[in-house]
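Structure (tokenized):
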């Protein structure tokens, strides 16, 4: 697909919608179990980064356009809002998806190193909610209580909100995203191209 081609075709939009769902499912499958446990919830971004690397790499190969990842971010933001996720996570997804598009777009979506960095940035998005918790806890708690989060969950979450926990979240997410992204690039080279799925 010609990355210089402007605008979106109907096929591009359909593909973007499908991959948005796949990226969300990948994040929920491996990140969801962490989020459901208050003492492990800070590790949601680590889990969310685990499976999505190959999906992300295939997506930008199929729709190598700036707007594609932005649309993914918008869809993530909307779905997160509808399901009661904290606005910090929703807008984190949106902002980081846009930044990822800019980074990958510098290399016209064809430079492996830039695509890897783009994926790492994309995976930082879910941290938005936890950063709000750290820097503006009262606002975070008020918002989540209104959304139905139990006080007991918040209390247990607060107990483990230490500097080391945040460090593990950040470093762990970067490491896992790097490994998942590298796997995606490897599959792109050896399997997807061979199968004719990506050029």
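Design, position by position:
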């Amino acid at each position: 697909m010609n990355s210089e081609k402007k605008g979106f075709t109907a096929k591009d939009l359909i593909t973007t919608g499908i991959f948005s769902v796949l990226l969300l499912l990948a994040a929920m499958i491996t990140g969801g179990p962490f989020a459901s446990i208050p003492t492990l919830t800070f590790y949601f971004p680590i889990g969310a980064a685990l499976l999505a690397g190959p999906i992300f790499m295939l997506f930008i190969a199929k729709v190598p356009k700036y707007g594609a990842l932005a649309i993914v971010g918008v869809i993530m933001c909307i779905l997160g809002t509808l399901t009661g996720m904290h606005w910090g996570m929703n807008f984190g997804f949106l902002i980081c998806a846009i930044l990822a598009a800019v980074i990958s777009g510098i290399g016209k979506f064809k430079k492996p190193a830039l695509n890897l960095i783009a994926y790492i940035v994309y995976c930082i998005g879910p941290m938005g909610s936890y950063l709000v918790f750290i820097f503006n806890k009262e606002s975070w708690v008020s918002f989540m209580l209104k959304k139905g989060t139990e006080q007991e969950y918040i209390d247990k979450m607060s107990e483990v909100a230490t500097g080391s926990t945040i460090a593990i979240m950040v470093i762990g997410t970067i490491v896992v995203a790097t490994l998942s992204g590298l796997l995606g690039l490897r599959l792109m080279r050896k399997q997807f191209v061979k199968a004719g799925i990506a050029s």
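Reviewer-requested clarification: The chain is about 75% helix and 0% strand. Residues 134 and 162 are 9 Å apart (CA to CA).
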